[in-house]
Structure prediction request, 538 residues.
Amino acid sequence: MRLTPEQLEEFDREGYLFLPSVFSPEETRLLREEAERVYALDREEVWRESSGAPRTAFAAHTYSEPFRRLGRHPRLIEPVMQLLDGPIYMHQYKVNAKAAFDGEVWQWHQDYGTWARDDEMPEPRAMNISVFLDEVTAVNGPLMFIPRSHKQGVQDAGHDLETTSYPLWTLDRATVKRLAEEGGIVAPTGPAGSMLMFHGTLVHASPPNISPWGRTIVYLSLCHVDNHIRRFKRPEWVAHRDFTPIEPLADDCLSELAAGQKSAGQAAE
Amino acid sequence: MRLTPEQLEEFDREGYLFLPSVFSPEETRLLREEAERVYALDREEVWRESSGAPRTAFAAHTYSEPFRRLGRHPRLIEPVMQLLDGPIYMHQYKVNAKAAFDGEVWQWHQDYGTWARDDEMPEPRAMNISVFLDEVTAVNGPLMFIPRSHKQGVQDAGHDLETTSYPLWTLDRATVKRLAEEGGIVAPTGPAGSMLMFHGTLVHASPPNISPWGRTIVYLSLCHVDNHIRRFKRPEWVAHRDFTPIEPLADDCLSELAAGQKSAGQAAE
Prediction:
């Protein structure tokens, strides 16, 4: 899977790229069911909303075989190697739930703001790539981007420890307003299996989910190996310290696992 | 302004009808500026979020000339007389702000649930008609409807006095989920000046507004005069007690006022 010159140009200009239905329903179902299993685990990596509903499972690639494979999937890794122009490592891995009714807000922020301030990542040669495990619609708390905001570098931010259970460096309102007046706000929506990639300095947020439907998205934060973090303040399972270049697996690494589970299920019946 | 047979059928089936750009930019601007003036008033009818941002101005038609005219505008009154099949009176009048960043949630509810329980309105021969004073988009807290939910009558509800500054009879989660599995959820969006009408038993909600843009909507709750409320528990400016049939004004009643203000402004320069 290679991005076209038009796609590379669009990512550079807008700061994000949305590719619908990159993963098959079968691959997506495998990951969706695995997310449920992971959220039920009693582990320090699994964070909850104040209601107790799951919010984020960190580092799921280290304790789940489907998520391990997704973390090395060529449909994710190869486009990011292309965009970051070289070998990459996994800086962070999150399975974000945004639970039905209870899923809370993520305030306006830049991910690289956190990576720079908390982790001393030298440059924004890092980005996110995400996979929708549920359909994302206007009604279940979609991710909102301010297009082209990534071109304006790292913005001042305050450390928000109160709004939600997750500490976040968030932008002030005047900055958000100024950037949104220039770039607008978009909320990319699409079916489960869609892929959304965005620059480390792109300003984004997501509203609470008041709908009766959950909305799970996996986020891989990938960084050029030369640009690895210098400071180990956050737990290893939040900001990883293994800078080994990721070797992509085969394109069928997930469908193979799904087929195996299915045949095992049938054999057991 | 008359609704077509197709529009009447759609309203009956889906429980709502969306008509984009019914009011001109000039008419909308007049109302938008008037909303700002009204929100700045220190009156008991003007309610605020916990942040102090405006949430709702009740009964604005009783202390504002532009909103008085809107409350008798033929583009609002005539279609509702058609749908409710006879003379109507104003049960409630609200200018809802949903302020930038601070606008809070309205949980899932049916307006007629409140009208029946609090005001003893005999039957759901009453409905809402609203006018967007700002563009409503997926990112600034749009109204969300569960289509066809109005066909299932009044649902059980609990009196929510805690979530926001406004007491509301809200539906339980199992009911919302069941209705949404059947009817889906839609979020009608469109330019300022658009009109949205919906049945008194249609289940709806709106999420917080995390965008940097306000989203003001005027709501008229109109009721057939024979179906007037029997109980006067809520303040008169929340649930009106004047059951006089509304006589629509001329179609240019707002544009005339806008033109008058403009020429007065020019004369003063």
Q: What stands out?
A: Residues 5-262 of chain B form a domain with the Jelly Rolls fold (CATH 2.60.120.620). The interface with chain A takes residues 100-101, 105, 107-108, 137-139, 141-142, 144, 173, 176-177, 180-181, 185-187, 189, 205, 207-208, 210-213 of chain B (CB under 8 Å).
